[in-house]
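To illustrate the input format used throughout this study, we show a single complete record. The first block contains the structure-token representation of the backbone; no residue identities are included at this stage. The design step must infer an amino acid for every position from geometry alone.
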């Protein structure tokens, strides 16, 4: 119990006053030089130079690409590492590095401090984080933030299934699909985030901060 509490305390101390941040998720199995690794580097560099801290899982693959791009930019590169039997080594591109033993404490950190969520192609872990964020927004237990999927070809089957099965059978509402955008180009992703916050500002309202207390 004390270990869990210490993880929450450390995350709060290091992240609470951070500038607006964007969480980037994707496969740990992508290697440097592969398309999605380099796309993660490009996207994260753009976000960092635009004033966003970039949060990733701190590990290899797309997580490393995201940290690498942010590390080369003007804003903080944040890694929320997790201790795993494999795929656990932290990458070298982190200005702020936290290590968690408990997935749920790490999930809370991702949810509380992100002003946008971007998923590149990935596996179970990426899907887990994606649906966690969507559930928090749908149930209004978390604030509305942009949720963007990069890679239309990769994600199209999931989007079609959600429309053809979840919406068609009444498992979710048609408007729930509006919580997700599919965008392929890094600059278009950055523009979409700025457009979302143009009217309301990047920082959470007092009501949204109160919601975060229940995460």
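Output of the design step:
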């Amino acid at each position: 119990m004390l270990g869990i509490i210490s993880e929450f305390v450390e995350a709060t101390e290091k992240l609470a006053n951070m500038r607006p941040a964007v969480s980037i998720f994707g496969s740990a199995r992508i290697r440097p030089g592969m398309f999605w690794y380099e796309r993660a580097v490009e996207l994260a560099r753009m976000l960092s130079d635009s004033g966003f801290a970039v949060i990733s899982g701190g590990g290899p693959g797309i997580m490393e690409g995201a940290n690498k791009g942010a590390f080369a930019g003007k804003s903080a590169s944040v890694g929320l590492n997790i201790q795993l039997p494999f795929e656990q080594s932290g990458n070298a591109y982190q200005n702020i590095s936290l290590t968690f033993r408990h997935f749920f404490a790490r999930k809370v950190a991702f949810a509380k401090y992100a002003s946008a969520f971007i998923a590149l192609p990935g596996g179970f872990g990426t899907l887990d984080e994606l649906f966690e964020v969507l559930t928090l927004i749908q149930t209004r237990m978390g604030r509305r933030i942009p949720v963007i999927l990069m890679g239309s070809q990769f994600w199209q089957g999931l989007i079609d299934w959600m429309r053809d099965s979840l919406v068609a059978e009444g498992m979710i509402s048609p408007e729930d699909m509006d919580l997700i955008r599919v965008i392929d180009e890094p600059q278009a992703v950055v523009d979409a985030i700025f457009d979302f916050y143009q009217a309301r500002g990047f920082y959470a309202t007092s009501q949204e901060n109160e919601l975060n207390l229940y995460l």
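Structural context for interpreting the output: The beta strands are 21-25, 53-56, 77-82, 96-100, 116-119, 147-149, 180-182. The chain has a mean pLDDT of 89.
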